[in-house]
Amino acid sequence: MKNKQKLMQSMITGMSGGALLMISDWFMESLSSDNVSNGIVQSSWTKAATWRYEAGMLICCVAVFLLFFGMRDMIRLMKMTASRKDPWSLRAVQAFELGGISLVVGELFLHAKGCILPIMYKKLYATSLMGADMLTIVEDVFFYMAIPFYVLMIMKIVCTSIPYMYQIWQRRLKLPIYFIALNPLVLWLLGWILRLFNVTLISNFTRGFASFGVVLLFYGFLQHVMQMSEEAGE
Predict the structure, then answer these.
(1) How many helices (H) and strands (E) does the chain have?
(2) Could you say which DSSP state residue 232 is in?
(3) Segment 13-56, tens digit of pLDDT
(4) pTM assigned to the model
């Protein structure tokens, strides 16, 4: 395969970015065992150290740069799997490109929400405002970013995972069939299911599952590059 080493390095760079996203998620989303949820507001926010959110945001900034360089070549590899005879394959590639761009562009925005709202609530908690007033202010701020937040969240997870799964199923990505389950969508759903058990350690660990799915996505394409090189006799 042409540029094999460069493509492999790009996939490893993307995996590194995904791993940093996991760390950022754990910094910003982990909750204490006595946490009480009030809609989007978590009581643990008042106890969490501000440096956690600052560190999470800085790590996210580094991760996005790494993701950009990895995603650029991942999209290129995905385009190579398109089949003119299969219109769904072409649509899958187009959707994947949209999802990949949303992943890179959206992560800063999504993590900014995870940084701004807790810090805002901590600041309000230190004032003389009533609890209901604090909740209303934080929820009102989130209301103005809710639509782009959920749109980017859905696009980055669904538009990368489903096309990836389809191309594996059609054998256009040279991967074992079980790789269909190794993507952001499946890991994100698994995280939600595990959080239903309401075990703090497990719940906090699953906060990084969607980002772990991104790592697995890059790993899948890394394996695809290696397999294609073997078939080419390189």
Answers:
(1) 7, 2
(2) T
(3) 999 999 999 999 999 998 888 888 888 888 888 888 889 999 99
(4) 0.90
